[in-house]
């Protein structure tokens, strides 16, 4: 089977964007691909974080992967900080990556504005660590959304530079992965503003539906979400981003086609559509929430999953790291 790799930062409660934009795609991809899926807890501290929540959030993300249908027969789930090769390779990449490659990263520029004077070196270095995460596992493809395309391009550039500087033409050191672009419609927008993405770090709780929200809370959030006064509901009208987003959510959660949803909702008003979206969301999340709770109540099992995951991940990661270190000319530890 070809291999893919992906991860999520344990920086807070996971929401419908994380599920529909990432995890649910992995569940489909695991039929065809061998998956390495991790919790990016080293990336989680590139912006100020809460040390009392980090470990718990990491377990929650692992439980969400499994509860959403990730099958441990097909996938290796591990914690980034448990596999030391990530930071070690990132250091080596730091030393061969030109600074200006990082300074032009859009995500850095956007996040740096929010951090002001306190922006950390880690935030600038975020995509270098990401390159190490990816290249250690020699994946064939990496599932990426729009926002991560530039980072994957950088990963490919770093791999190319290592191969060029230290490898031989016919024997590259690092495998250069291809992007696996996500299907359309998998960019979930904020419930408070249809032009901004749904995000864990948005201070407005009502802007997102978390995967662990109760039925009552889901109902409240959909009731309060932003809509518009136009009559009838439609996809793809740039003047109506909220309408497009809510129909997309309904389409993805009901697993209906876009055409079917467009036809079903064409004549509807918000008063009719909102209860339908509420019911659909609650029903779609119910089985995930039940399984999630079982997993969170069985810490010993989750620990065993992460221990196995670390062992499998380390075997692959350490072998790639050893290749890079040899190519860079390091002595073997005695
Ligand atoms: N709104 C979204 N729509 C579709 N996909 C999304 N993802 C995140 N938000 C949406 C995807 O989820 C994965 C997790 O990403 P991450 O935690 O590493 O960071 P992120 O993309 O920055 O996610 P958030 O939720 O917005 O977190 P914060 O607020 O902490 O930055 C990725 O595959 C991402 O594409």
From TrEMBL:
Top-level taxonomy? Bacteria, Bacillati, Cyanobacteriota, Cyanophyceae, Leptolyngbyales
Kindly state which reaction or reactions the protein catalyses. Answer: tRNA(Trp) + L-tryptophan + ATP = L-tryptophyl-tRNA(Trp) + AMP + diphosphate + H(+)
Per the UniProt entry, what species is this protein from, by scientific name?
Romeriopsis navalis LEGE 11480
Assembly behavior: Homodimer.
| Motif window: 'HIGH' region | 10-18
Residue positions of motif 'KMSKS' region? 197-201
NCBIfam families from the entry? trpS
- One of the GO BP terms on file: tryptophanyl-tRNA aminoacylation
The UniProt keyword set, sorted, is: Aminoacyl-tRNA synthetase, ATP-binding, Cytoplasm, Ligase, Nucleotide-binding, Protein biosynthesis
- Which PROSITE patterns does the UniProt record give? AA_TRNA_LIGASE_I (PS00178)
Annotated residues for binding of L-tryptophan: 133
Q: What does this protein do?
A: Catalyzes the attachment of tryptophan to tRNA(Trp).
Q: Which GO terms describe its cellular component?
A: cytoplasm
Task: Give the similarity note.
Answer: Belongs to the class-I aminoacyl-tRNA synthetase family.
Lineage top rank: taxon: Bacteria
PANTHER family (alphabetical): TRYPTOPHAN--TRNA LIGASE, MITOCHONDRIAL
This protein is called what? Tryptophan--tRNA ligase
Q: Which GO terms describe its molecular function?
A: ATP binding; tryptophan-tRNA ligase activity
Q: What EC number(s) are associated with this protein in UniProt?
A: 6.1.1.2
């Amino acid at each position: 089977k070809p291999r893919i790799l992906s991860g999520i930062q344990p920086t807070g409660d996971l929401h419908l964007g994380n599920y529909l934009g990432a995890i649910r795609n992995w569940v489909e991809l695991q039929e065809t691909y061998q998956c390495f899926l991790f919790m990016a807890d080293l990336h989680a501290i590139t912006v100020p974080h809460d040390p009392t929540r980090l470990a718990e959030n990491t377990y929650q993300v692992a439980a969400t992967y499994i509860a959403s249908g990730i099958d441990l027969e097909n996938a290796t789930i591990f914690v980034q900080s448990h596999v030391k090769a990530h930071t070690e390779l990132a250091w080596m990449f730091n030393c061969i990556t030109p600074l200006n490659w990082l300074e032009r990263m859009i995500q850095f520029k956007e996040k740096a504005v929010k951090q002001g004077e306190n922006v950390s070196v880690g935030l600038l270095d975020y995509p270098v660590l990401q390159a190490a995460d990816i290249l250690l596992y020699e994946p064939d493809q990496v599932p990426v959304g729009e926002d991560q395309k530039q980072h994957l391009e950088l990963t490919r550039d770093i791999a190319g530079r290592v191969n060029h500087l230290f490898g031989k033409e016919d024997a590259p050191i690092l495998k250069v992965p291809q992007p696996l672009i996500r299907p359309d419609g998998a960019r979930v927008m904020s419930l408070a503003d249809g032009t901004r993405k749904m995000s864990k770090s948005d201070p407005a709780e009502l802007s997102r539906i978390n995967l662990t929200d109760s039925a009552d809370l889901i109902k409240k959030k959909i009731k309060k979400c932003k809509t518009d006064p136009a009559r009838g509901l439609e996809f793809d009208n740039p003047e109506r981003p909220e309408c497009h987003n809510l129909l997309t959510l309904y389409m993805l959660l009901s697993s209906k086609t876009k055409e079917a949803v467009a036809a079903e909702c064409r004549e509807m008003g918000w008063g009719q559509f909102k209860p339908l979206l509420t019911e659909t969301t609650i029903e779609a999340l119910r089985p995930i929430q039940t399984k999630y709770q079982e997993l969170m109540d069985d810490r010993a099992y989750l620990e065993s999953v992460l221990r196995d995951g670390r062992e499998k991940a380390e075997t692959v990661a350490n072998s790639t790291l050893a290749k890079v270190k040899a190519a860079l000319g390091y002595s073997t530890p005695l």
